[in-house]
Amino acid sequence: MTANPSVLLRLPADLQPDRLPKHVAVIMDGNGRWAKKQGIPRIMGHRRGVDTLKDILRCCKDWGIGALTAYAFSTENWGRPLEEVDFLMTLFERVLRQELREMMKENVRIQFVGNLNALPKSLQVEIERSMEETRHNTGIQFSVATNYGGRQEIIQACRAIATQVQQGLLQPHEINETLFAQHLYTADVCDPDLMIRTSGEMRISNFLLWQAAYAELYVTDTLWPDFNREAFHRALISYQKRDRRFGKV
């Protein structure tokens, strides 16, 4: 099915506004493979992937989805070739500088989740500036998982809670799911309802392990640079056909 592009600027008629996910998480996979298919360097795939992310963010805003979390760089991605890692860090920094004014105009609130202390200092400066300047925006919550790992996030939450117990500020019986979630990077955003992975890989790759406990998973063979509004539309159609019982009958 090929939808009219002009229609996709607003919520398609076959989607129910009251059944849209409140929070969508995306594993943006396939930039390198897309570039290889085009016969161009891998880094060009990452550039195209940024354009795709910008459009999907605007699409969420246009269609009334309140939060988008994108898996931009995992803790395991440091194992990629140094040239590619350096390019990605420079790309993140440049995009933040270039897009901040537009995010302010569109009322986007951006946050970065992950171990940010390991990132280049100049990138940390841009990250802090973008979060500070958009913190009072009331539109879509845009979270960028950078140097992020789900297991590492859970460990740091455990350490923080254990420290409070050790200091006598917290009793073990007071630890519950709500308190634990408050110690995660994503404490100020609801858990994702829908997790999308592009490129056909059937795994979540250490992404939002706690938060995705009841997320609906959608996997597509489409490579991330080709994941346009029409592809997002198909993902949402699939989501709205799901029967979300949360363990109940």
How is this structure best summarized?
Its cofactor is Mg(2+). Catalyzes the condensation of isopentenyl diphosphate (IPP) with allylic pyrophosphates generating different type of terpenoids. The chain has 249 residues and is α/β, with parallel strands linked by helices.
**What global shape is seen?**
globular
Kindly state the percentage of residues in helix.
40-55%
Tell me the number of strands: 6
Strand content: 5-15%
Quaternary organisation of the protein chains? single chain
Number of helices: 7
Described by strand count, sense and barrel closure, the largest sheet is: 6 strands, parallel
Number of domains: 1
Low-confidence runs (pLDDT<50, min 5 residues)?
Answer: 1-7
Radius of gyration over alpha carbons? 19 Å
What is the strand arrangement across the widest sheet?
A: 3-4-2-1-5-6
Terminal residue distance: 34 Å
Structural class: alpha/beta
The whole-number mean of residue pLDDT values reads 94
Order of helices and strands: EHHEHEHEHHEEH
CATH class: Alpha Beta
CATH fold field value: Undecaprenyl pyrophosphate synthetase
Molecular structure report:
With 249 residues, this protein is α/β, with parallel strands linked by helices. It is 41% helix and 14% strand. Helix 3 (82-105) runs parallel beside helix 4. The longest helix has 24 residues, at 82-105. The radius of gyration is 19 Å and the shape is globular. The two termini are 34 Å apart. It is an enzyme of class 2 (transferase). Its cofactor is Mg(2+). Keywords: Magnesium, Metal-binding, Transferase.
